[in-house]
Structures are given as C-alpha cells and as structure tokens.
From TrEMBL:
Ranges where the ABC transmembrane type-1 domain occurs: 101-291
Protein name: Peptide ABC transporter permease
Localization of this protein: Cell membrane
Ranges annotated as spanning the membrane: 34-56, 105-129, 149-176, 218-245, 269-290
Taxon lineage: Archaea, Methanobacteriati, Methanobacteriota, Stenosarchaea group, Halobacteria
GO cellular component: plasma membrane
Membrane topology: Multi-pass membrane protein
UniProt KW Transferase keyword: no
Gene3D superfamilies recorded: MetI-like (1.10.3720.10)
GO biological process, one term: transmembrane transport
C-alpha cells in the first residue's frame, strides 16, 4: 500500500473520530434544552466574532448615517436606514454591535484559556507535590484572593496604556485563582489512588506521573473552569470598558455601553443600550448553562431531575 493511501486512511479515521465525538456531544446537549440553547448562542457568538466586522454594513466609527437631505441622523430609533438605530454621534448601532463582537470574543477566549491554563498548572503542581511547594503556591493564591480584581485592574491600567492584549493578561492574572483551588482539591484525591502509587513504585518520574497519570484524571474539571473563565473574562472586559479602561482603538460591547452612558442617553436610547447589554448577558449565561450541564456529569452529586 502506498504512503499516500496510508495517509489518506489515517486522515479519514481522524475525521470520522472527530465527527463521532461531535455527534456524541450534540446528543448529550440535546438531553438538556437549556444547555442546547446555550450552545447555539455560543456558536452564534463565535461566528459573530469571526465574521461580524465583515458583515457590518458600515464602518462602526467613521461612517455617519444621514437622511436623504444629507443631515446626520443623531439618536434615531430603529428605521429603514439604521436597523438598530443610531448613536448620539450618528453612528450605526448595528454595525457597532457586529464589530464589537470580535474584541469581546478575543478577550473572552484568550482570557478564559489563559485563566484555565494557569489555574490548572498551579493546582496540579501544588496538589501533587504538597509540602512546602503546596504551602508557597497556596499562600500566593490566598494573596490573589485578598486583592480585589476591579480596583487592582483599574490601578494597573492607569499606568499602562490599555489594549486588548494587556487587558487579557490583566484579567488572567487575577482570575486563575479559582481554577487553581478546585484543581488542587481534585489532585489531592487522585494522587492517593492505586494507579498513581503504582506509577511511582515503578520508577516513573514526578513529571511523567503528573503528565500521564494525574493530569488526565483532572482535565475534565480543568476544561469546565476554563469555560467558566471565558464567561468571567467577557464580563470583566465589558466592565473595564464601561469604566473607560477598554482598548480605545476598538469597538467592543462594553465600550458601546460606555459611549451611551457618556452621552447621557442611557435611559432614553434603549436601541443603543439593549444590543450590547443583551449580547453580554446572553453569552455569559449560555457559557454557564453549558458548563452546568457538563458539571453534572463530572460531579453526579449535583445532578438535578430532568
């Protein structure tokens, strides 16, 4: 058999395995209607983040919506020319909503992944080694718990020019503590199991034991809190942007809320407030709904009657 044929078979097997895994996940989500609805919202959000700026009918910053006579439409309710109305500055709300999904997705996804990775790594090392290593890492974790996120983030961003990457790092630097605590508690239980002790007795190094025997058994809880981290990061990014510490070069949902607040029309221009507010609420709620469904599988003690 030729090498090309073998490679083709391997590729076909991998694609089939991926399709089977996807089908299994969809079948699982269908058992929980709330989780399925959440998955649909998350998928829509990802598509908006990837293609939203391309689908926006106008430039969210430079383009001014005008009437037939050439007058700028300021604070206009939804109409034929502006599907979701206009801002106090004559900008198209619909275009800003579509463009604002991308920064929200970037910070949420990268912030959540970095939060989950740091928390998983700290919890794994701390729980596995114990002793002075656990003491140092957990005291450092306690220190981060004692530092309130928002005041510290605002303090840091006062001295650093905010951009999407700095904001992502600041968010992850303060949110990793929760996954670390949970993963550590799981590792403390797993490391006492027979197969881990057998690996040590056979001469396996600590790194090999952690990587091949302990880590795979706590990965589900790590993935779960990574998903939660995405929701936390989206909320944190929106909060920072609303307070005026978002990336000034990009339109995000939090920045849209900041702009409507600054204009003094937050109680009047509902068409300007609702799209970003509902977008943030829908995505974060959906992440928690999907996460809750998987958490019931990981921890049967919290299962609810379906």
């Amino acid at each position: 058999m030729s090498t090309d044929s073998q490679n083709g078979e391997v590729l076909f097997e991998r694609v089939s395995a991926a399709r089977s895994a996807l089908a299994d996940q969809l079948a699982f989500l269908r058992q929980d209607r709330l989780a399925l609805g959440g998955a649909v919202v998350i998928a829509s959000f990802v598509l908006l983040g990837l293609f939203g700026p391309l689908l926006a009918p106008h430039d969210p910053i430079k383009y001014d919506v005008t009437t037939a006579s050439g007058e700028v439409m300021r604070l206009a309710a939804p109409n034929a020319q502006a599907f979701l109305g206009t801002t106090a500055y004559g900008k198209d709300v619909f275009s800003q909503f579509l463009a604002g999904a991308r920064p929200t997705l970037i910070v949420g996804l990268l912030g959540g992944l970095l939060t989950g990775f740091l928390g998983f790594l700290v919890g794994l090392v701390s729980g596995y080694y114990g002793g002075w290593v656990d003491e140092i890492l957990m005291r450092f974790t306690d220190l981060t718990f004692s530092l309130p996120f928002m005041p510290m983030a605002l303090l840091l961003l006062t001295f650093i020019t905010p951009n999407i990457w700095v904001i992502t790092f600041v968010i992850a630097a303060f949110l990793w503590k929760m996954p670390a605590r949970v993963v550590r508690s799981e590792v403390l239980s797993v490391r006492e199991r027979t197969f881990v002790k057998s690996a040590r007795a056979s001469g396996a190094s600590d790194l090999r034991t952690m990587s091949l025997h302990v880590a795979p058994n706590v990965l589900p809880i790590g993935f779960l809190y990574t998903a939660y981290g995405i929701a936390w990061a989206i909320t944190a990014q929106a909060s920072l942007a609303f307070l005026g510490f978002g990336d000034p070069t990009m339109t995000s949902w939090g920045r849209m809320l900041r702009m409507v607040f600054d204009s003094g029309n937050i109680r009047i221009a509902w068409w300007w407030v609702l799209p970003p507010a509902l977008g943030i609420a829908a995505v974060t709620t959906s992440v928690f709904l999907v996460g809750r469904a998987y958490e019931e599988v990981i921890n049967p003690e919290i299962q609810t009657d379906q």
